[in-house]
Amino acid sequence: MRQTQLFTRTLKELPKDETSYNAQALLRAGFIDKVAAGVYSFLPLGLRVLNKIREIIREEMFSVEGQEISMPAFAPKENWESTGRWESLDILFKIAASDKKEYALNPTHEEVVTPLAKKFIYSYRELPFAVFQIQTKFRNEKRAKAGLLRGREFLMKDLYSFHLDQAGLDAYYDRVSDAYTRIFDRVGLGEKTYFTFASGGSFSKYSHEYQTLTESGEDIIYICDKCRLAINKEIIAEQNTCPTCGSSELREEKAVEVGNIFKLGTKYSDAFALGYSDASGAKKPVVMGCFGIGLSRIMGTVVESSHDERGIIWPEYIAPFRVHLLSLNVNEKADEIYKNLTEAGVEVLYDDRDVSAGEKFADADLIGCPYRVLISKKTLEAESAEVKKREETTAELIKINELTAYVQ
Amino acid sequence: MRQTQLFTRTLKELPKDETSYNAQALLRAGFIDKVAAGVYSFLPLGLRVLNKIREIIREEMFSVEGQEISMPAFAPKENWESTGRWESLDILFKIAASDKKEYALNPTHEEVVTPLAKKFIYSYRELPFAVFQIQTKFRNEKRAKAGLLRGREFLMKDLYSFHLDQAGLDAYYDRVSDAYTRIFDRVGLGEKTYFTFASGGSFSKYSHEYQTLTESGEDIIYICDKCRLAINKEIIAEQNTCPTCGSSELREEKAVEVGNIFKLGTKYSDAFALGYSDASGAKKPVVMGCFGIGLSRIMGTVVESSHDERGIIWPEYIAPFRVHLLSLNVNEKADEIYKNLTEAGVEVLYDDRDVSAGEKFADADLIGCPYRVLISKKTLEAESAEVKKREETTAELIKINELTAYVQ
Predict the structure, then answer these.
(1) How far apart are CA A18 and CA A37, in angstroms?
(2) What is the complex's ipTM, to 2 decimals?
(3) Can you give the pLDDT of all 408 residues of chain B as single tens digits?
(4) B321-407: CATH homologous superfamily?
(5) Coil, strand, or helix at residue B112?
(6) From the centroid of its chain, how far is CA A336?
(7) Which chain B residues are closer than 8 Å to A42 by Cβ?
(8) Which of A53, A69, A295 is the best residue to mutate to test the B interface, defined by the most B CB atoms within 10 Å of its own CB?
(9) d(Cα B154, Cα B139) in Å, to the nearest integer?
(10) Residue B335's pLDDT is what?
């Protein structure tokens, strides 16, 4: 994309009430706009990142046979009363409609997906299956000061699975856990993300969170470096040793929860009388699992965990563009290179603007694409482009005819 | 996709309060689920259709240089007060949050996109540009009885354009109008959709709607067959002749509005003081256009306008699958054909279930894929498959080795 065509630009002035680093960096670079506390628009660069995270998650959900659906933001009050959460869930947004009925703005979808599954499950033959969606959720937060880490409105993937029995759920739970590990690797958070033991509720000893280390995290986790896992605050209150090796050498760190997986058991099946007939005709309750990941939260977490004093450093697979091509008054030649790279399938943001070299460099650092490719009279004299990786400090000259292969 | 893997099935019992044809047909075939009046989930088959409509619209928006963004459902009360619509728009959902502030659930986004544009427009150099989103909207409807034609929660594409002057808007308006014509052609509504003159507001003599003929439509339009256009009820009250040829031979028809395009002029620019400096440094207001299409409404309209007594007949480019492959007790051979078709890039729903031929035929008609391909002992004796197009009554035998080419 040509930067002269992009309607956003990097900004110097930020909203005064924005105190989180991730939102400041994303606002400054033109990835998001703030509409209210905890409510953001995603602008072209930001939506590109979000869509890349979305495609990675979709692929991994398809790899565990998730069937994609899309459930609504609205659910009738009665659905939430069936589980007792109309009263007990303090972050639930409630809204009165002109049909005289009340609705919740769903912060999670057990109250919608369980009655949905009930319409299609009669006998053991229909089980197991799993459905997922990538959809906007709402939470009535008292304070929303953490940028994309905690929004009133945010994008989530939620997967719900339906099983014959606990053994079926247990096996699927492990498969989804592996898919989550692949997701965090692919979005660039793998090294800083810990599989973390959390409280399991009534159907399982543990549930699990995926916690990413960051100074801005609201959670505290306790890491066992030997097993490369962690336990959260709830668990350490009951047991101060690693659940796997028993070691008590645990390292305390700040972290943000980027995903969670939970064995629901029959909690929601019981609330909605979701059962099936087994091979002998006996009625049994369906055993459920749920598996969440926040997409906008991942985006915010990546920014918190991957930046320097000059701006964001996007991991390769979720960068808005792979290459930021900077032309210093040589647009004719740069146009040609832009065309060649684009035709080779490389995603290029092309700074064809008539502004100073300093401004182009500063913007490239703020925006944070993996490769900065500079074309100037000087580089062209050597039939080259100057290529610098975002996270490195030194650049190197690459021959123009080797450029595509180099950045691909 | 194998039908044994699909968690939905065709249903015999429908919600008693569902009176619209489109919702009944889509519920029966397992495309959607009803959560509340005017509030639906999109199930795997339905989401596939919606995503195809989405991709067609995105392509056409990119063809008119639309930059994709995603704005939130929430907007602060103050934004809506700036335009006077907090009080005047009766379908506006209002919600109180625990930060003691009030928010609207946006039914349209002028109140969000205009302040957004203001952050990036300083001078004439930034203009023109256009942004679009495909996003969930909310309308506080008193009654919602038309299925996907009028929802409390629905998916829309909205494009907003920003121009130096009226001439710039006029030229862009015509380009988007052409893109809309292509969209309605591609989703299969071209023949029944009329470019319809509507009231223009204060900045233009006319705005325009795209109206699709259907018995279930809530609108009345007056068609000039000579010019292949229509005028709506507002216009006929003032002028009972064709705005193009002046003919008074107008045919009255029921229709549903599937899109609208509107010259906003400076209405919202004035409300938010959105201006720019021209080349001489003088301050001028930005001239805006807005262009809407309802995606879920298109899906409902297609079902209303393309079905027979046995079920839905999907147009080619938005069908959930191109081929519905039915195996009558010859799954081994059918597995092979399924694999070959899929590898050739043909989208196949494969009925590999152990149910009667009659049930398979009935379901294929309900679901409505363009090609029904039947494999049985009898067809295999002739080294063939029996192929029937959904809208035709007769089938023909096609040699297995010619099948891929035939349905591609």
Answers:
(1) 8
(2) 0.97
(3) 999 999 999 998 888 889 999 999 999 999 999 999 999 999 999 999 999 999 999 999 999 999 999 999 999 999 999 999 999 999 999 999 998 999 999 999 999 999 999 999 999 999 999 999 999 999 999 988 899 999 999 999 999 999 999 999 999 999 999 999 999 999 999 999 999 999 988 778 899 999 999 999 999 999 999 999 999 999 999 899 999 999 999 999 999 999 999 999 999 999 999 999 999 999 999 999 999 999 999 999 999 999 999 999 999 999 999 999 999 999 999 999 999 999 999 999 999 999 999 999 999 999 999 999 999 999 999 999 999 999 999 999 999 999 999 999
(4) Anticodon-binding domain (3.40.50.800)
(5) helix
(6) 36
(7) 69-70
(8) A69
(9) 8
(10) 98
Say which of A42, A76, A126 has its CB closest to residue B69.
A42
Nearest CB to B36; choose among A68, A103, A116: A103
Q: Report the residue of chain B nearest A130, measured CA to CA.
A: B7
Is A70–B8 a contact, with Cβ atoms under 8 angstroms apart?
no
Q: Which two tokens stand for residue A20?
A: 């989180």
With contacts defined as CB-CB under 8 Å, which chain B residues touch A11?
119
| Whole-number Å distance between alpha carbons of A367 and A377 | 24
A129:B7 CB<8 A: yes
Contact A70 B50 (CB under 8 A): yes
Chain B contact set for A95 (CB, 8 A): 93, 95, 105
B37 vs A99: CB contact, 8 Å cut-off?
A: yes
Residue A203 reports pLDDT greater than 80 = no
Q: What is the pLDDT of residues A360-387, one digit of tens each?
A: 999 999 999 999 999 999 999 999 999 9
Q: Give me chain A's average pLDDT, please.
A: 96
Contact (CB<8Å) A74/B36:
yes
Nearest to B68 among A30, A47, A141 (CB): A47
> Would you give the DSSP letter of residue B152?
S
B67 neighbourhood in chain A, CB within 8 Å: 5-7, 44
CA closest to A111 among chain B residues: B35
- The lowest-confidence range among A276-285, A390-399, B235-244 is B235-244
The Cα of B185 is separated from the nearest Cα of chain A by a number of Å equal to 26
| Identity of residue B81 | E
Query: How far, in Å, CA of A263 to CA of A288, rounded?
Result: 7
Going through A233-375 in order, the beta strands assigned E by DSSP cover 251-265, 275-277, 283-285, 287-294, 307-308, 311-312, 323-327, 348-351, 371-375
| Chain A neighbors of B97, CB-CB under 8 A | 93, 140, 152
Tally of CA atoms within 13 A in the half-sphere of B408 that contains its CB: 11
Q: Where are the domains of chain A?
A: 21-308, 321-407
- Among the residues of A64-109, which ranges form H helices? 77-82, 85-88
- The CA-atom distances, in angstroms, between A167 and each of A159, A171, A288, B168 are 18, 6, 11, 65
Q: Do A152 and B97 touch (CB under 8 A)?
A: yes
Instruction: Report the alpha-carbon distance of residue A159 to residue A297 in Å, rounded.
Output: 17
- Angle at A52 (CA atoms; ends B299, B110), nearest 5 degrees: 55
- Cα B135 to Cα B350: distance, rounded to the nearest angstrom: 32
Is pLDDT at A328 greater than 80 in this prediction?
yes
The CATH number of A21-308, from 2.140.10.10, 3.90.550.10, 3.40.50.10230, 3.30.930.10, is 3.30.930.10
Q: Where are the beta strands (DSSP E) in A266-367?
A: 275-277, 283-285, 287-294, 307-308, 311-312, 323-327, 348-351
Suggest the residue from B1, B43, B55 to mutate for an interface test with chain A (most A CBs closer than 10 A).
B43
- Across the interface, do A35 and B129 touch by the CB < 8 Å criterion? no
pTM above 0.90, yes or no: yes
A225-261, pLDDT tens digit by residue?
Answer: 999 999 999 999 989 999 999 999 999 999 999 999 9
